[in-house]
Specification:
- The chain has about 450 residues and is α/β, with parallel strands linked by helices.
- It has 3 domains: about 5-135, Rossmann fold; about 150-255 and about 290-305, FAD/NAD(P)-binding domain, CATH 3.50.50; about 315-460, 3-Layer(bba) Sandwich (FAD/NAD(P)-binding domain).
- About 25% of the residues lie in helices and about 20% in strands.
- The chain contains 12 helices and 17 strands.
- The strands form 5 sheets. A 4-stranded parallel β-sheet has the order 2-1-3-4.
- Helix 11 links the parallel strand 12 and strand 13.
- The protein is extended.
- The termini are far apart.
Length: about 450
């Protein structure tokens, strides 16, 4: 690349008011590099000024002395050019006041005793940018011989379909692989979802139906249901992918590492490398070596993993106090499946569940730790599912006991809406015990917001 240098300095945002622009412009010009100033370099006029110099062949490597590289990065993008940002605004002018570092008088400029520290810093930033331009080279993309621009999306739920639609809109051919018989994933089973549009106060119908229509209407999206990925080999831009039907065993299934119990003899001593390799081959008999490419595989340039999630299975002494063996103590996943079928009822006998307690933390009174999988999603799911109870029953009551309620961003509006909902009660607290009592359950909690201990009667937990 035959570099043609240029320096562009913005005088807006206080830069021109604080710095001596004539002296600053002299820095590149003393090196024979043209320097241009503009009052608002990030404006259309400022960007057009730079683009015109590029189009006229005057510059292809430039220092832009203006704001931080963390802002306006898309504004100052010029394909085929090297752009170095000198941060005069956040790095020089804004953090250093002229009250603390006054500008030099004309007499002081030449006495060699006084120095303008702000001006010197700005000049150093420009000099460093110019040196970097000299040393930096424009990256050249590496492309494989059989480079592919096709995109594989693993998973046909909301995430997978959204990725596929976005990629297709950007002009790429996309394949969606879904192991189930139809697209939709978990969202297709839900009664409703958290809000995604203003006023963010009520639940909404799952977006899955609208996404399905978009996918079906897009000719560049190939949908393969009842299909799994057996193996992905190769490198970015050149992935060789082998597909199969769920449950099918084929030579290009990925070989598995030996289980730990097969790596030692009857005395617990680990086998030597040769024996381990022999056992590995025996364990993976019928599977091709991991480095072997499938000659019948399909080529893809990129892979999006959107394979979904699995409900956690609670077990162990840490949850003993939650009465998990009781059929009316269920997970939020099981609750969602009940809600999708109709009104909220108890699994044990099918009776109406009008009083439901949602437990967000298992820690008794020992600490305030949450479930391992707890996060903003589970907090919002608890609020959403609490609203199901009041939707189904005019006299329904939902209690959410939490240690940390996480509703980031605009979802805080949904949280506030649920706080105002009649029949929904929210409190911080430590659940110490869930016990059967009569025809229902009792949930005991301590360290609540009001300082009182609670004993909540529930049809369902």
């Amino acid at each position: 690349m035959d570099k043609k240098f240029g320096v562009y300095i913005c005088t807006g945002c206080g830069i021109g008011d604080t710095l001596d622009m004539e002296d600053l412009v002299d820095v590149p010009e003393e090196e024979g590099i043209n320097c241009t100033t503009h009052p608002f370099l990030c404006s259309k006029e400022g960007v057009d000024l730079i683009q015109k110099d590029i189009d006229d062949g005057k510059v292809n490597a430039m220092v832009i002395g203006a704001c931080s590289r963390r802002v306006n990065f898309d504004t100052f993008t010029f394909p085929g050019c090297i752009v170095e940002r000198a941060n005069l605004r956040e790095g020089v002018v804004w953090p250093h006041s002229r009250e603390t570092y006054p500008a030099l008088t004309e007499d002081q400029k030449d006495d060699e005793e006084h120095f303008d520290q702000i001006q010197m810093k700005a000049e150093d930033y420009i000099k460093m940018g110019m040196i970097r331009l000299e040393k930096v080279k424009l990256p050249e993309p590496y492309k494989t011989e059989s480079f592919s621009k096709k995109i594989l999306v693993m998973g046909g739920g909301v995430t997978g379909m959204s990725a596929a639609v976005d990629a297709a809109k950007a002009g790429y051919d996309v394949t969606i692989v879904e192991k189930q018989a139809a697209l939709g994933g978990y969202a297709a089973k839900m009664r409703s979802q958290m809000p995604t549009a203003e006023p963010f106060e009520t639940t909404q119908a799952p977006v899955v139906d609208a996404l399905l229509q978009e996918v079906e209407a897009c000719p560049s999206i190939d949908v393969r249901t009842n299909c799994e990925v057996a193996r992905i080999a190769g490198q970015p831009g050149e992935f060789t992918v082998t597909f199969k039907t769920p449950g099918e065993k084929i030579p290009f299934d990925v070989p598995f590492p030996l289980p730990e119990e097969m790596m030692v003899d009857e005395n617990g001593k680990e086998y030597d490398a040769e024996t381990l390799h022999a056992k590995y081959l025996e364990y993976n008999e019928g599977r091709k070596d991991i480095l072997k490419l499938d000659p019948e595989g399909e080529l893809y340039g990129a892979v999006v993993l959107a394979a979904g999630w699995r409900p956690d299975k609670l077990k162990g002494d840490a949850y003993e106090h939650l009465a998990l063996d009781n059929p009316d103590v269920i997970t939020n996943d099981e609750f969602e499946m009940i809600a999708a079928k109709g009104k909220i009822v108890r699994p044990s006998d099918g009776k109406e569940a009008k009083n439901v307690v949602f437990i967000q933390s298992p820690g008794k009174d020992e600490d305030d730790s949450d479930f391992e999988y707890e996060g903003s999603v589970t907090s919002q799911v608890a609020l959403k599912q609490a609203s199901y109870v009041t939707e189904d029953y005019a006299d329904g009551k939902a209690y959410v006991v939490y240690q940390h309620m996480r509703t980031p961003g605009l979802q805080e509006l949904f949280y506030k809406s649920m706080q105002q909902e009649d029949g929904i009660f929210l409190t911080k607290g430590a659940v110490t015990e869930v016990t059967p009592q009569g025809d229902g359950l009792t949930v005991s909690a301590t360290n609540t917001l009001l300082g009182d201990n609670l004993a909540l009667k529930a049809d369902l937990v």
